[in-house]
């Protein structure tokens, strides 16, 4: 018997009868399982329940129920799900089907880490218009793993019959920011959801900045479920926000005059080369999608990992039908029961089987603007937040339209999570459907990283809210994005090397060779030769990443060169003598050292990591890889703590400038010295990274905006880490490495670094020999590494390179070829690539 209670509902149109909220089905399992179809290992249990008994199922056990929904709308399925003792491959599923069991949509799932016996409540809406729904709870576990369900409640409202016509229009339409003198158009749909014909008579006249372009609605009659369109244009004639109201007259008895708010923002053009419809699409929109479908994103919970192709823009993608400008908020992404997590490597045992904040993406509340078919985040760089372990880095994505998305547009956004106070980067993708006012849930998946010690997959979906708004500086954001895209070095797939150099007999496989870097740990690699960037793919555990050019990677210790060393050589050019000044004059805490260990030490000694202060000399990494260094320096959040350890840890044992011992702390000291010097010269708000690196060098090089940020201490000092904490795109790697090596520090004919110091850094000054690293023919000078190699042709020379923790190498070859790779299996070999690159141009002159 259905229980009902009268609830008044406000619905446009006249109802033929009252509307009742009804309990369609309920079961608390206290009376057993008689109402269910069961198979496999299913029984009841009184030990783990909210009260009385629960349904208990394991292995392949399942219970299902077919529910008649005829005569109901607004149907919801409520239940509480619990689990115990699950392992990585064990899951407890709650699902429903609206097509007779042909396909099931996951409502929620519990996995390893959500298995402490607690019940998680869930409420799932079922789309109107379905006569039946099958509700199913099933296990995918071993014999010692347990699933429980309690208090299943299905309820809905009795179907109202709207005898009269009922007009449905959007509340508002935003045109975003438009340059004065330009225009933008939006298509507004008008629908009739009543049973009687809707007669539309007239609509208001728009004046000023808004105008009606086409109108198929006026003086028309829409049958039940019929619709018509109005195209409205916005052409701002002045700077600032503009608004208007479009009124539509009809025979809807409840809303005889429907209104639509029109919003736009007029802006002034501040640059050249801007394209309004950037990177347009001309596909048909036909695409046979089997993963992350419209139904998955709008009526289900994503519980399985999918191919990265599900996030890619299809070959036949059509131009998006909607304009996105505003804020996306993910609603409680860190809640227990949201998302899935599978660990592949955890050297430091960060996570156990229990739920953990590391297993969830952080809160998300960020703005985006759309330029043509690109969706650009307003907030770029390393986005600090309240999460204990993760920081977002957001990348521009793509937007398009597919036929199967019910008229909505679709977006895909690459993103990364960077470990707080560290430099590990885990690469992910997000996707959702949207229109001018709403969006679906957001599906996300992380299936690759550049991180030696912590590797995992994280995936799921989370409820999201879209708040359309006008972004005041949207034009500048769009122009900056388009400027970067047009500045990228011309690129080709790595296989084209053999085509472009036909007489060189290139064996492309020798770049990124499997004997030198384990393929599953290779993030990407590339070769720069004669003005072209030859690029590899970027594989993940779920297929090839669809946006390799937006795959963000960590710098780790390449920052010692690109930040600390480069800043020192820049300051030497601007302020001659800086590199040979005294650290005790630049850092008061060094001058206060009671043992005087920092007397006669210079910034040059610090970037050489030859301060003369060290503890162990058995190997050049002995001090660096100590537990004391982790706890005393790397894990410390504040500047005072990092600097105190850096200055006090190592006693004087050698003459400064004579003995190399690898210390990230030395690079931190060099960064602090440069920061203090810049502030003394330029004022208290000056910053060595923002002013000396970004403004002077990286902006002229058109380095990506997301790269123009660095890890810093978590205090008011906000000191750049100096020796790590940067991130790059692959185009940035080539631009920065080319500037340092091939261009010898010149931009537009002007030297940006001290030429003499850069020659020393490139091992090209025979009067300034490098420091012997005492391992594998390695040397170090001015923050740069080199290996002494016998090259093709018989000559012997230094080969400079930048190096980063875990397996990051940027190699600057003597024939003006650059070879780089980013990996995370502690592999630092490039002998095959060295030989192969020698075929592109002679090493020995």
UniProtKB/TrEMBL annotation:
Main location as per UniProt: other
UniProt keyword annotations, A-Z: Cell projection, Cilium, Cytoplasm
A cellular component annotation (GO) from this entry: cytoplasm
InterPro entries in UniProt: Beta-lactam/transpept-like, HYDIN_VesB_CFA65-like_Ig, Ig-like_fold
KW Cytoplasm (keyword) present: yes
Pfam family membership, one: HYDIN_VesB_CFA65-like_Ig
Location in the cell: Cell projection, Cilium; Cytoplasm
Highest taxon of the lineage: Bacteria
Domain HYDIN/VesB/CFA65-like Ig-like: start-end pairs: 168-264
UniProt xrefs under NCBIfam families: choice_anch_D
Protein name per the record: Choice-of-anchor D domain-containing protein
Native organism: Vibrio qingdaonensis
């Amino acid at each position: 018997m259905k229980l009902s209670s009268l609830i008044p509902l406000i619905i446009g149109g006249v109802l033929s009868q009252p509307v009742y909220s009804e309990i369609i089905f309920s079961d608390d399992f206290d009376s057993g399982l008689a109402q269910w179809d069961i198979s496999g290992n299913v029984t009841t249990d009184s030990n783990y329940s909210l009260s009385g008994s629960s349904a208990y199922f394991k292995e392949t056990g399942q219970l299902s129920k077919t529910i008649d929904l005829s005569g109901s709308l607004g149907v919801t399925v409520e239940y509480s799900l619990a689990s115990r003792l699950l392992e990585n491959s064990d899951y407890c599923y709650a699902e429903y089907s609206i097509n007779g069991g042909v396909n099931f949509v996951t409502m929620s799932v519990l996995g390893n880490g959500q298995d402490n016996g607690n019940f998680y409540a869930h409420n799932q809406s079922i789309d109107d218009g379905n006569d039946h729904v099958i509700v199913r709870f099933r296990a995918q576990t071993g014999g010692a793993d347990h699933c429980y369900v309690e208090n299943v409640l299905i309820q809905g409202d009795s179907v109202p019959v709207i005898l009269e016509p009922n007009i449905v229009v959007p509340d508002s339409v935003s045109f975003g920011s438009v340059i004065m003198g330009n225009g933008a158009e939006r298509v507004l749909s008008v629908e009739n959801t009543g049973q009687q014909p809707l007669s539309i008579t007239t609509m208001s006249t728009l004046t000023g900045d808004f105008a009606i372009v086409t109108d198929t609605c006026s003086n028309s009659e829409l049958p039940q479920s019929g619709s018509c369109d109005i195209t409205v244009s916005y052409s701002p004639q002045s700077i600032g926000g503009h608004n208007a109201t479009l009124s539509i007259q009809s025979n809807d008895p409840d809303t005889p005059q429907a209104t639509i708010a029109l919003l736009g923002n007029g802006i002034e053009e501040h640059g050249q080369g801007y394209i309004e419809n950037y990177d347009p699409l001309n596909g048909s929109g036909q695409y046979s999608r089997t993963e992350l479908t419209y139904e998955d994103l709008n009526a289900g919970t994503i519980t399985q990992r999918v191919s990265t192709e599900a996030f890619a823009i299809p070959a036949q993608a059509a131009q998006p039908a909607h304009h996105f400008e505003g804020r996306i908020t993910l609603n409680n992404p860190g809640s227990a029961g949201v998302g899935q997590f599978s660990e592949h490597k955890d050297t430091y045992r960060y996570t156990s089987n229990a739920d953990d904040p590391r297993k969830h993406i952080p809160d998300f509340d960020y703005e985006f603007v759309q330029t043509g078919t690109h969706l650009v985040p307003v907030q770029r760089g390393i986005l600090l937040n309240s999460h204990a372990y993760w920081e977002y880095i957001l990348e521009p994505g793509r937007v398009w339209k597919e036929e199967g998305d019910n008229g909505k547009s679709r977006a895909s956004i690459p993103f990364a999570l960077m470990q707080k106070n560290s430099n590990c980067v885990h690469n992910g993708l997000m996707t959702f459907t949207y229109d001018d006012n709403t969006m679906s849930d957001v599906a996300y998946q992380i299936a690759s990283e550049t991180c030696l010690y912590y590797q995992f997959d994280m995936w799921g979906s989370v409820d999201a809210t879209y708040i359309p708004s006008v972004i005041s500086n949207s034009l500048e954001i769009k122009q900056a994005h388009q400027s970067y895209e047009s500045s990228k070095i011309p690129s080709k797939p790595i296989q084209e090397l053999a085509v472009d150099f036909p007489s060189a007999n290139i064996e492309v496989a020798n770049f990124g060779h499997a004997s030198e870097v384990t393929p599953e740990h290779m993030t990407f690699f590339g070769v720069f030769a004669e003005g072209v960037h030859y690029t590899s793919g970027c594989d993940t555990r779920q297929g090839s990443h669809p946006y390799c050019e937006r795959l963000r990677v960590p710098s780790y210790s390449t920052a010692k060169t690109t930040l600390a060393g480069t800043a020192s050589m820049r300051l030497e050019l601007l302020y001659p003598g800086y590199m040979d000044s005294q650290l005790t004059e630049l850092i008061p805490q060094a001058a206060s050292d009671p043992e005087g260990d920092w007397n006669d030490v210079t910034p040059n000694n610090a970037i050489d990591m030859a301060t003369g202060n060290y503890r162990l000399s058995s190997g050049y990494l002995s001090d660096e890889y100590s537990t004391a260094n982790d706890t005393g320096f790397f894990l410390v959040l504040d500047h005072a703590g990092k600097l105190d350890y850096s200055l006090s840890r190592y006693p004087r044992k050698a003459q400064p400038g004579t003995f190399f011992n690898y210390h990230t702390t030395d690079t931190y000291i060099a960064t602090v010295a440069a920061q203090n010097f810049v502030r003394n010269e330029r004022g208290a708000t000056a910053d060595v990274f923002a002013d000396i690196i970004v403004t002077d060098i990286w902006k002229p090089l058109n380095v990506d905006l997301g790269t123009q940020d660095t890890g810093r201490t978590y205090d008011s000092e906000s000191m750049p880490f100096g020796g790590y904490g940067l991130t790059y795109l692959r185009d940035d790697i080539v631009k920065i490495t080319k500037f340092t090596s091939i261009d010898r520090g010149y931009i537009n004919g002007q030297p940006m670094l001290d030429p003499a110091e850069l020659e020393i850094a490139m091992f090209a000054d025979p009067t300034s020999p490098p420091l012997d690293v005492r391992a594998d023919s390695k040397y170090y000078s001015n923050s740069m590494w080199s290996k002494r190699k016998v090259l093709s042709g018989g000559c012997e020379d230094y080969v400079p390179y930048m190096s980063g923790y875990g397996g990051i190498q940027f190699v600057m070859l003597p024939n003006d070829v650059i070879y780089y790779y980013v990996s995370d299996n502690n592999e630092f070999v490039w002998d095959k690539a060295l030989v192969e690159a020698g075929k592109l141009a002679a090493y020995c002159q």
